[in-house]
Specification:
Distance between the termini: 36 Å
Number of strands: 4
CATH class of the largest domain: Mainly Alpha
Structural class: alpha+beta
Number of domains: 2
Shape: globular
Strand order of the largest sheet: 2-1-3-4
Radius of gyration: 18 Å
Length: 224
Amino acid sequence: MTLTLYTFDWLPEFPRGFVRDLRVRWGLEEIGRSYQVATVPAHPKSAEHRKLQPFTQVPVIQDGEQTLFESGAILVYLCEGTPLLPDERKAEIWQWLFAALNTVELSVMHWVSMILAERVPEFFGPPPAADVRAHAKADMDTKLTALQQALGDKEWLAGDFSVADIAMVEVLRVVAAEEALDAHPHLAAYVERATSRPAFKKAMADHMQHWQVADAEQAKRSTG
């Protein structure tokens, strides 16, 4: 049975390239597993979406009778026992996966949400004061400095490329997009290495094509 990956039906320009279905697409491309895409409305939220994901977020997958949400849980489910999550390195990979999603991403998104509030307050609320943004940036930089020290001269976080690297790089891409990774050259090189992988390129191309098709369908509806 073909695995189904759920993402939003349409979103405006600013989150495209960073919607978290991309993490799952990347993992699926790395392990060579085929999938199909289904959509849920971004607005208004639907009862069908809430049945799949109680917080009405994406991604969600359906694999036979198994339904899962949360990108980290999905990556573990899909990749366990593959080279991305081999049994002999499982504990270390889990450690870095949790670090990506629980430590680094929380700090990154705390700061990024403040930056986005300045640009699109209708989505992110009123922008905070400059000193509040500066404090959030300093906390993020502390986490990034520690991560860079831990990575050192290693190519990947836990031996060979793994689901931990998918999660961590997806977090760091947000920082890089805001040109805030320049002070951490080893992390910038790490992101460049990971996003040069063919699986990432294919996942990103398919991710962006989804929004292009969604734009065309929306335009057709508005003129029909």
